[in-house]
Amino acid sequence: MASTAAGKQRIPKVAKVKNKAPAEVQITAEQLLREAKERELELLPPPPKQKITDEEELNDYKLKKRKGFEDNIRKNRTVISNWIKYAQWEESLKEVQRARSIYERALDVDHRNIALWLKYAEMEMKNRQVNHARNIWDRAITILPRVNQFWYKYSYMEEMLGNIAGCRQVFERWTEWEPEEQAWHSYINFELRYKEVDKARSIYERYILSVGSA
C-alpha cells in the first residue's frame, strides 16, 4: 500500500560516531566536582580584615594569638622557627620584655642555634637596648666562639656606638681563639681607620706568629 507524500513521517537522523574508542584523557565525575569547587573558591572574596575597636577586643586578640603560639611550641618544642615567630610577634606589639622571655625560653631548648642568638641580639639593638645586646653577644661568643658572625656583629655594634675601646676588646678576645685570616685583617683595618698604625703593625706581627706556630 503506497503512502502519500503528506502522510510520510520524518525520522530524525542519528549522528554517526566515527571513533568509538575511549578518549585518551578520561574525566571522572569526581574531577568535575573538584574543578567546580575550585572555581567556586576562586570567586570567594578574601576574608575581611579584623578591626579591633577597643581595648577589650585587643586583649582578646592577644590572648588568642598567644594561645596559638604556645600550642605550636607545645606540639614541637624543638622547631626554633616557631619560637622566633612568637618573639617577633610580641616585638611587633612593642612587648619587648615578653619577646625577651620567649627568646630565653627558646635558648633553654637549643642554646647552640645560631639564628636564635642573631635574632635575639638584633631585636635588642633595634630597640636600642644596648646593654641587653652586649649581654647577648657576650653569651653567644662564650658558648659558640667559632661562629665568626657573632664576633663581626658584636665588634661592628661597638664601633657604630663609638665605643672604640669596647670594639678593640672584642677583637682582642677574638684573636685569643686564633681565628681565620679574615678576622685578623678586620682587626688591622679597624685600627687603621683610627690612624693607629703602631697597633695595626703589632696585630699583624701577632698574626704572623700565630700562623707560624700553627
TrEMBL record:
Organism domain of life: Eukaryota
Protein name: Uncharacterized protein
